[in-house]
Amino acid sequence: MFSSEQLQVYFICGTQDIPENRTIEQVLDEALKSGITMYQFREKGPSSLIGEEKKQLAINLKRKCERYHVPFIVNDDIELAKDIDADGVHVGQDDKEVKDFAMQFRNKIIGLSVGNLDEYQQSDLSQVDYIGVGPMYTTSSKDDANAPVGPHMITKLRDYVGELPIVAIGGINETNIEPIAEACADGVSVISAITRSKNIDKTVKHFRKYFN
Questions:
Q1: Residue 212 within any structural domain of the chain
Q2: At 155, which CATH number?
Q3: 12, 40 Cβ separation under 8 angstroms
Q4: What is the pLDDT of residue 145?
Q5: Which residues are annotated as a binding site?
């Protein structure tokens, strides 16, 4: 059963996001022990895994999340999500219509990226459990990221979506999270703030205190 509290510290990463001296398994283990509330497997880019290797890694990471009762979400790859019985999927504006895969993926968590009011007006939110809004700030984690929309976009969209959970994404770190919490986001999605943290436990706990 999905709860907006699961968005408080939403960790996103794939192998392409991990520093050379670490593995994705090590980073996820630390993040889970530190208290992340949701994990999204986002394996994208020229160095990312594909095929059976990607599937086996996803299975291993999902098992780690299960031990901590943390939902395991797959980014974009609906077939992979179905194959490994993931807890949910997250899709962007360029992916197929939400209703097309919602029929295939019943009783699962569905997240949708909504960057601004134009995208909101073009989106079918009837099958969506939460929206990811951003980028909040300039980010280096996504090569195709749009221009930053800032925390005020959360406030704007809140007027339209009501109680639908909103998680902020893009360029978020320990120094700029406060305006996001003040804008009444339900949580933050982060990549490099955790993967490149020198103290993951401290970073995760810092984020969580804004949403408890």
A1: no
A2: 3.20.20.70
A3: yes
A4: 61
A5: 40-44, 75-76, 95, 113, 139-142, 171, 191-192
